[in-house]
Design goal:
The protein contains 14 helices and 26 strands. The chain is an alpha/beta fold. It has an eight-stranded mixed β-sheet. A hairpin with an 8-residue loop joins strand 4 and strand 5. Keywords: Exonuclease, Hydrolase, Metal-binding, Nuclease, RNA-binding, Zinc.
């Protein structure tokens, strides 16, 4: 008697949608969407700084097509607190209104971003690094990793037998100044994974990234040779670097002042979360003029040459609280982000021209440590996690290609070099490109307008020193302005300086008298918009151009 054969076919594996809207084919502005059965999760929500555009605006991911496609994310997960991973929350989160999952430090920074836009912060959900939670359709296992900001995590995303490792930004640092190490056992425990969505930033770097403890030692050694005032510039989010600078300052008997709002905010947040318990008490900038130069250390933002940042104002002698003098030391404890090299070089040259000594990682190796993995670190992580497939992100095409070549040496497949807007589909074995969205740059101006109502009308006199550059036909502000205004709520010098600088860029005048006349008319209208009141403006333009 014949028996009927029953053939049991394995259940067809479901598919995962992956849609990068930032961070692929570029460095910065990271935003990745993961979808399963029409339910979506966002990982990171970052922005980029556009040094190539006038006034250095911000760029945020273009999400305009999501509503048309019926994509409404159920959650956002932030891997760490850097601007290129959460800086766009204030503009994009209102379009989603979903929960935001972040570690305590990243949650604190995210709250600042929402508050700055006048938004409520009750959507923020805090998780402890290393814990498991649900976000949208995915089960999310957070994994501690070392980076240049504490509480950085990689994410293991699991749904319907899919296991995707989203690395975020990471490195292997056996001796971090703050935060956790990247531990082998945390990744061997989750091995093997199907797909790794991996950081490509340093895939072209052969060597292992430097430890933050090495930077701390170098900072102290460089400071030993400094006689005048010391200015240390680093990313405000690098709390380990800030703490190392504070410890070095204490050992060299220097008082610390903070220069830049971002630095002030991060030090305050770092203290609140217990990361800067060992950081010395700061002194107000207004008091440093009473201290001997050899007893002063200033922590400043603006290491990327941002024209409106504190460090650029200092280099141009336009800061209201401080002037650089010959013999002062400027320490760049950072490295230029790709695209910012020329701006950083110009900034360093400006300090040199003022007689300051400039120290950087290029001239004094060890003053900076990358937060991203070099080739050896990538090989180590992939030996631990044993992925079968790689999707290289966080980098330009050359970085992504180098990442694929590294993975190939371990037999890890990589079939797609993703770019922003590519709708990818992953079935557990193969990655395909289903569609490509058309994305447009979304530019956000950083110029802030402070409106202060007043019913009074008073005269304002501004003494403006300028210099004329004949080869460009342009006038430039130099040094400090003198402002004599009876208006109680007059704009601050930095805001007025911003307006003057931008206005001069687009102005042609054949003499200082003509320049003063043009500026007075424009300033009158601008100040009326700022202050909501009229004021008679007199501008005394002082031409300091050297006579030939």
């Amino acid at each position: 008697m014949d028996q009927t054969r029953v053939q049991v076919r394995p259940r067809r594996r479901s598919e995962i949608d992956i849609l990068p809207l930032g961070g692929c084919g570029e460095i910065g502005m990271n935003l990745m969407l993961y979808g399963f059965q029409s339910r979506w999760l966002i990982v990171d929500c970052g922005m980029a700084l556009r040094q190539d555009l006038p006034d250095t605006p911000l760029q945020i991911p273009d999400i305009s097509s999501l509503a048309t496609l019926g994509i409404r994310p159920e959650a956002i997960v932030i891997t760490h607190g850097h601007e290129d991973h959460l800086g766009a929350l204030g503009w994009l989160w209102p379009r989603f209104g979903c929960p935001i999952h972040a570690t305590p430090l990243a949650a604190g920074i995210a709250r600042q971003k929402l508050v700055e836009q006048g938004l409520a912060t009750d959507a923020i959900r805090t998780f402890t690094p290393g814990t498991l939670f649900d976000a949208g359709p995915f089960s999310v296992q957070s994994i501690n990793v070392a980076h240049s900001i504490p509480e950085s995590v990689s994410l293991l995303l699991e749904v319907d037998r899919h296991r995707i490792l989203h690395t975020g930004d990471w490195k292997i640092d056996p001796h971090p100044v703050l935060g956790f190490c990247t531990r082998e056992e945390d990744f061997t425990r989750i091995a093997p994974v199907d797909l790794v969505v991996g950081d490509s930033t340093n895939a072209m770097v052969e060597h292992h990234s430097r430890s933050e403890s090495e930077v701390a030692a170098t900072l102290e050694a460089v400071m030993e040779s400094c006689q005048g005032r010391v200015v240390v510039s680093c990313f405000a989010s690098n709390l380990a670097r800030i703490l190392a600078t504070g410890r070095a300052a204490r050992r060299h008997h220097r008082r610390i002042a903070l220069l830049g709002r971002a630095m002030e905010k991060m030090v305050r947040l770092g203290r609140e979360l217990g990361y800067l318990d060992d950081f010395p008490e700061t002194v107000p900038l207004s008091d440093i003029g009473y201290l001997p130069p050899g007893e002063i250390l200033i922590l400043a933002t603006g290491s990327q040459g941002e024209p409106r940042a504190a460090l650029s104002r200092l280099a141009a002698n336009q800061h209201s609280a401080l002037e650089i003098e010959p013999g002062d030391c400027i320490i760049f404890s950072s490295r230029a982000i790709p695209g910012n090299e020329r701006a950083v070089t110009r900034l360093q040259q400006a300090f040199t021209q003022r007689g300051a000594r400039v120290f950087s990682d290029e001239t004094h190796p060890g003053l900076h440590a990358s937060g991203h993995p070099g080739r050896d670190e990538l090989l180590s992580l992939y030996r631990w996690a044993r992925p079968s497939h790689l999707l290289p992100v966080h980098g330009e095409s050359a970085h992504q290609q180098a990442h694929c070549e590294i993975a190939d040496t371990l037999g890890i497949k990589s079939s797609v070099l993703p770019v922003n807007g590519q709708w990818l589909r992953w079935n557990g074995k193969r990655m395909t490109v289903e569609n490509t969205l058309t994305l447009s740059p979304v530019i956000i101006s950083q110029r802030k307008r402070t409106r202060k109502p007043s019913n009074r009308q008073n005269d304002t006199i501004i003494v403006l020193p300028v210099v004329y550059q004949a080869d460009t036909g342009q006038w430039y502000r130099v040094g400090r302005m003198l402002i004599d205004s009876q208006i109680n709520t007059f704009v601050d010098e930095e805001t007025l300086g911003d307006w003057v600088d931008i206005t001069l860029e687009n102005m042609t005048a054949h003499s200082s008298r003509e320049l003063a006349h043009l500026l007075e008319d424009l300033a009158s209208h601008w100040l009326k918009a700022q202050l909501r009141q009229a004021s008679r403006i007199t501008i005394d333009v002082v031409d300091t151009t050297p006579q030939q």
